[in-house]
Amino acid sequence: MSTPKETPNASAPLDRGETHDVTELHAAVLREKPDPVEGFEPLNLWVVAGIAGLLFWGGSYLTQYSGRFEANEFSEYPHGKPAPVAAVAADPMAAVKRDGMLAYNAVCALCHGEDGAGKAGVAPPLAASDWVNADGPNRLMRLVRHGLKGPVKVNKDVIWNPANDPGIVMGSQWDAIGGTNEKLAAVLTYIRSSWGNTGAPVTAQMVADGLAPVKERSADDNWTEEELLQVPTSGSGAPSVAAAPTVDQLKALLKALPDDQRQDVLKEMSK
Ligand code: HEC
Fold first, then answer.
1. What is the second-level CATH architecture of the domain 85-240?
2. Phi first, then psi: what are they for 262, rounded to 5°?
């Protein structure tokens, strides 16, 4: 196919038979900015200001209320728990009981349990035990001092009978608890006032007096129930003058009383 040869004519615009000037039309299109693409819109200035404001407020809030991010800032006792002054004043035996509890948990609890409930096949309960709650601690201090063997009636419901396993005895606990009258008194005071038990406190003097008649007895010579029942629960070990509360303890007790009751006591005393 042969094309007719065109003769270029530089001075005359090409006549393509168009009715509009394309260049002019395109110029208008070229002036336009490109269409915005989604995701690139500038943020509304109010939103920016709002976020900046929130950040600023958050910062100042933390500065004011963060407590310097120290854990103890919100603790009830930021400087450690204060000694329970009121409790000590109200219960002059508190320190002794605590001492007794430490020894009990370290030594006796292995067999009798921290809750004093005893353990089947290991040791009888001390909670609600007639031995522990006796009015005087004479038998109690002996069996802890020299040990106990054989069947034992703990209370009207519990009878401990190690007959099937004569190997189960309680040896002397004297050395284990520290071997002093004070320690023994503390342990006994603790078990007599725990788990619902109601025995009165035991003093070191009561232990000294109570054990005096048996100081020659060997620690291996465990008591039997029969032998112990012949010992009066109190007597030589009965509360002596030393067992009475001291003047300071009485003062502390008086101070711990509510005002009206204290007045009553004082009135009673001055009659
Ligand atoms: C190795 C285990 C063991 C340890 C430790 C032990 N006991 Fe015992 N306890 C026994 C056994 C076993 C009996 C019963 C003994 C028997 O056969 O008559 C007993 C009996 C008793 C009883 C008389 C029975 C009763 O239930 O009331 C008392 C009171 C007692 N123990 C107190 C203590 C105290 C206080 C300590 C710590 C200073 C202590 N025991 C440590 C095993 C133990």
1. Orthogonal Bundle (1.10)
2. -65, -40
Q: Best substitution site from 101, 112, 190 to test ligand 1's pocket, by max atoms within 8 Å of Cβ?
A: 112
| Residue of the CA atom closest to atom 23 of ligand 1 | 131
Per-residue model confidence (pLDDT) at position 269: 83
For the CA of 184, the closest atom of ligand 1 is: 38
Q: For residue 265, how far is its CA from the centre of ligand 1 (angstroms)?
A: 41
Ligand 1 near 187 CB (within 6 A): yes
In terms of pTM, does the model score above 0.85? Answer: no
Nearest CA to ligand 1 atom 32: 144
Distance in Å, CA 170 to ligand 1 centroid: 5
Token pair 């004043």 in the structure block, residue: 89
Helices (H), 104-211: 109-112, 130-133, 138-146, 181-192, 204-211
Measure the CA–CA gap between 226 and 61, rounded to whole angstroms: 76
Residues with Cβ within 8 Å of 103's Cβ and at least 6 positions away in sequence, in order, are 177, 178, 183, 186, 187, 190
Give me the pLDDT at residue 88, please: 57
Nearest to 177 by CA among 102, 117, 112, 113: 102
Ligand 1 contact, 112 CB (< 6 A): yes
Residue 68's pLDDT band, with cuts at 50, 70 and 90, is: confident
Burial of 182 (0-12, 13-18, 19+ CB in 10 A): middle
User: DSSP of 102-135, one letter per residue?
Assistant: HHIIIIIHHHH-TTS--BTTTB---TT-HHHH-S
Is the C-beta atom of 142 inside 6 A of ligand 1?
A: no
DSSP helix/strand/coil, 239: coil
